[in-house]
Structures are given as structure tokens and as C-alpha cells.
Write a structure and sequence with these properties.
This protein has four helices and no strands. With about 110 residues, the protein is mainly alpha-helical.
């Protein structure tokens, strides 16, 4: 076994573990955005909700497996999340607004729909 192969295996293990640990929080965030009242959400969460619904329509073309694949794809990008604002700036894309916090219906995990 070469050193390059060992490094690749370790990186794959780290990435896989990170993805597995990100699946539940990803599902919870998606549920908060889709199940809560959009009228009580802040502008940042409404923008994320529109983006998520657009993505869900695209993944729906794959049938029943589309939803699971969408969640896995979102969860597998855990390592890119800190760089997304910088990448958006470099790409000339508009700034995506952030959640305003407690006044927003999608902010809290325990808040009802």
C-alpha cells in the first residue's frame, strides 16, 4: 500500500464521517424552511427556501430517489460551507442574506409551524 493510497483513504474517511454527521442537521434545516410559515420568516430564510424548493424541483426528475440524493448532496458539501461567501464574492454573485435570528420562524428548532 503506497503512502498516496493511505492518504486518500484517510481523506475519504474524514469526508464520509463529516457527511454522515451532516445529514441530520441538513434534514432539520430543510424541514424548518419548508414546514414553517414563510410569512413569518426573515428575508434570508425566504431566499434560502426559494433556493431549496428550486433545487428540490430539479432533483425530482430522478423520481423517488431524488429527495435522498438531494439531502446527501447537500450534506456532502459540509467542508465547503465556510468558503461559500468568498466564492460568491469572487464569482460576482449577489450576497445571500443571513437569518435575522429569534424573530424568524425558521430560526428555532423547537418552534411550531
Amino acid at each position: 500500500m503506497s503512502a498516496l493510497s493511505a492518504v486518500r483513504d484517510v481523506l475519504a474517511l474524514i469526508w464520509g464521517t463529516g457527511m454522515a454527521l451532516s445529514i441530520v442537521p441538513t434534514l432539520e434545516a430543510m424541514a424548518r424552511l419548508t414546514e414553517r410559515d414563510p410569512g413569518r420568516m426573515c428575508e434570508g430564510c425566504r431566499a434560502r427556501r426559494r433556493s431549496q424548493l428550486r433545487s428540490a424541483r430539479e432533483w425530482a426528475a430522478l423520481g423517488r430517489a431524488g429527495t435522498q440524493l438531494m439531502v446527501m448532496a447537500a450534506a456532502s458539501l459540509w467542508w465547503v460551507a465556510p468558503f461559500i461567501p468568498v466564492l460568491r464574492r469572487l464569482g460576482g454573485l449577489e450576497h445571500q442574506p443571513r437569518c435575522t435570528g429569534p424573530p424568524c420562524a425558521a430560526h428555532s428548532r423547537s418552534a411550531g409551524p
